[in-house]
Structure formats: structure tokens, C-alpha cells
Amino acid sequence: MKNLFRLIPSIHDILHSDEMQKLKQEQGLPETFLKRRVNQVVDDIREELLKNELSFESKNEALIVIQNRVVHNIKKYLSDRIEPVINGTGTILHTNLGRARLSEKAIHQVVQVAKHYSTLEFDRDSGERGSRHDLVEELIKELTGAEAAIVVNNNAASVYMVLTAFAKNHEVIVSRGELVEIGGSFRVSSIMEESGALLKEVGTTNKTHLFDYEKAINDQTSLMMKVHTSNFHMVGFTDQVTREDLVELGKDHHVMTYEDLGSGMVYDLTRHGIGKEPLVMDVLKSGIDLVSFSGDKLFGGPQVGIIAGKKQYIKQLKKHQLARVLRVDKMTYAALESTLKQWLQQDLNIPTIRDLLITREELQKRVKLFIRRYYECHHKGLTLKEIPLKSMVGGGTLPEIELDSYGVSITSRHLSATKLKSKLRNLKPRIIARVEQEQVLLDFRTITPEEEVIILKKLVEID
């Protein structure tokens, strides 16, 4: 064992070896960075020697092992953490894969704003300092019918800001059936606690009545909050108070009303027989004081939280210290502005809505052509078959909806489905698939025609 340790070159010798100096020069690495990586690799090798997991015969062999590991570790360390992937799962708003894809128009606008200085806080008319809060407010007002609006960095931030600004150290009445948990174990009740608002639960899990709210109102009541249960669907013996009734009760008792909508739908999907998601404009028509929703769910834009409603309340939010803490950057505003304009101009070339509305028949045509092209390459290592599938909307929206979809099932003579899925995941770009009944499935609902070309090439390579 001691002899093996003696074969490990000194850190100085490793650092000044030709291979390490070449790596340092090619990657533009600081000496301190390279030294830390070498030390870490040497420590790992010592640990492996102690456990009899590694051995070498000479100092030169040890040096080669160390050099190879350092090169591998540094390349992995410097690789992109966030990278494009091809989503073959069929889940349109896949939270792990970044939720909504931006439209081409939004992408173009982001690039332009990122490349140049911008009018983020510059009044174009006066030439004086402007406010980023004014950039898209008029567009949101036009689209939703709200009196005013403000944008923050996500919808959880919207909830937190509203509760902090209007209910800190005061009671907020919420139905027990609406105390949801959103992605990443964030609970509405926990956000309330952090904001300093005092939660007042009313009703039961499945039934809440108007009199439950009325009985709970007292001098400490600041807000009645309604939470749209967009990430689960309750059926059976249920009853919840309508927002219209809640608004009337709020007016009678001079209590503010607020609804967290979550998904933020501005296009009526019911005309296509998809779900019963409330439209933001219809919710505001009910007279509710404030609503908030996400920008990167059914709205199909960047990650933001949009708070819209009565001008007197939005004005207070704009002056609140959290308005600076939770504000969004120039590239997010660029993407949001572009997406808002597309909705206003009824331009449905927004990936989220496009993927929602594409029919199984259209997908089937693409699948048939894809399989034919694969077999025209005369490759037989993989077996491709067309298969009807069910897609999910995802992102905590429309949980009860399954969309009729179409895709490709892939099996290999040499690889198990799990190994084939892993192989696809480790390609560049990574292809994310799902496995069912020992078949790798690619759902074409979330795959673009441009991505089909890439997948075809990669499948031929695997073959």
C-alpha cells in the first residue's frame, strides 16, 4: 500500500506536466482553479487505494490516470448546467424541463434586448428616468380588462407580495379545500406564514359555504382569498363558494378579495373541449379586487407572476419595498411583452397553445412519415412502431385532462428499454423519453418538426 502511495506524483509535478499545462492553456484556466481540481482528484485516488478499488504499476501510469480524471472532471465542471433538450414525454408544461417554451417572436425580442442597451427604465418621450412597472401594464390591462397590473418574478412571489402588503399581522380567510401545495412542496399556508398573514381556515376539505366565510369575518380580517385548485381535481360530494358570492360578501363587510388563479388562461380552451379553466378576464369581471397568475404555464410566456385588478391596490403594490425585491429583468420583460402582443393580436403561434391544440390526426401523419424515413436509411437495430398515446398538460394545470396524442414506440435487440432511454438522455442534445411496458415512447405532441430531424439522425447513430 505504501509503495502505491509513493507512485502518486507530487501536486507540483502534476500541475507542470505537459498535459495539464496544455489543458490550462486551452481552457484559459487560472492556476488556483486547476490546482483545486488536481488536489481533489488525488484525494479521491488515495481514498480508492485505501479501499483497494484502484491500483497502478508505475509513476507514469499513476500520472496518466490522474491527468485523465482531471481532464474529465474539468470538462464536466465547465459543461453547461442548463442546456436545450428535446421533450419526448408529451407533457407540454414539463416543470423539470422549463415549462412553457417561448415563441419565435418572444425569443427574437429577448435576443435584441440582451444584445443592446434598452429602455428598461427610460421614458422614451421625456428622456428622463422611467419605471419598468409601466412597460407592459397597458398590454395586461387591454388583454384582461384590469384597471392596473404589476409584474413580479413568479406567481408564488405574487401571493407573497399581496399577503405581505395587505394582510401582514391580520387574518386571511381561506377555504380548507383550497389550501393547496404547489410544485417543490411550497404550500399556500406556508407562504402565508412567511408573509406574516394569519391564516383563518373555514369549511371542510370538500365543502365550504358562504356562511363559513361570513361567520369568520371579524375586526382582524383583512382579506378573503380564493385559490384556484389548478393542480388537482376533486370530484364527488363537493361544494365551494363562487367568486361572485365572495365578492358580494367582501363588499358588504368592506373586506378585500383576492384570487390566486395559478395557470393564467387568456384563451378559451373549452371551445376545443379542453377543461374548464377560468379565463383571467372573466374572473376580473366578477368584481374581485386582485387576481394573480403565472406567465409560464397556460399563458405560454416567461416565468413571471402577474398581479392584476383594482388600481388602488396595484398602486400600493408598486410603492411597496417588495416591488424592488421581486422585480423581473429586461429579458423577461422582453419575452413577456412579445407574448402579450401575440395574445392581443390573436396570434396563436405560441408553443404552449399550439401543442395543446394539435390533433392526433396531424401527429399521426408526422409519425408515419418519421418511421418511413428511419427505415429508408436501411437500419434494423431498432424497431419503430406508431402508437396512440395520452399526453398531459403538466405544470400543475388541468390535471384531469388527457389529450389524445400519437408517437413512436422504440425497442432494441441489444438494449433494454431503461438502457435505451438512458442512452437517449445522454445524447447531445438530450432526448427525454418515457418507458412503458418495456418500450421507449416518444410523444410527438411536444416534439417539433425540426426536432424530428435531429431525433432521426440520433436514432440512426444509436443503431
Automatic annotation (TrEMBL):
Keywords: Cytoplasm, Protein biosynthesis, Pyridoxal phosphate, Selenium, Transferase. Its EC number is 2.9.1.1. It holds the Pfam family SelA. PANTHER family: L-SERYL-TRNA(SEC) SELENIUM TRANSFERASE. HAMAP family: SelA. Gene3D superfamilies: 3.90.1150.180, Type I PLP-dependent aspartate aminotransferase-like (Major domain) (3.40.640.10). Belongs to the SelA family. It comes from Piscibacillus salipiscarius. This is L-seryl-tRNA(Sec) selenium transferase. The modification N6-(pyridoxal phosphate)lysine is found at residue 297. Its cofactor is pyridoxal 5'-phosphate. It catalyses: L-seryl-tRNA(Sec) + selenophosphate + H(+) = L-selenocysteinyl-tRNA(Sec) + phosphate. Its main location: cytoplasm. Coiled coil: none annotated. The gene is selA. Pathway: Aminoacyl-tRNA biosynthesis; selenocysteinyl-tRNA(Sec) biosynthesis; selenocysteinyl-tRNA(Sec) from L-seryl-tRNA(Sec) (bacterial route): step 1/1.
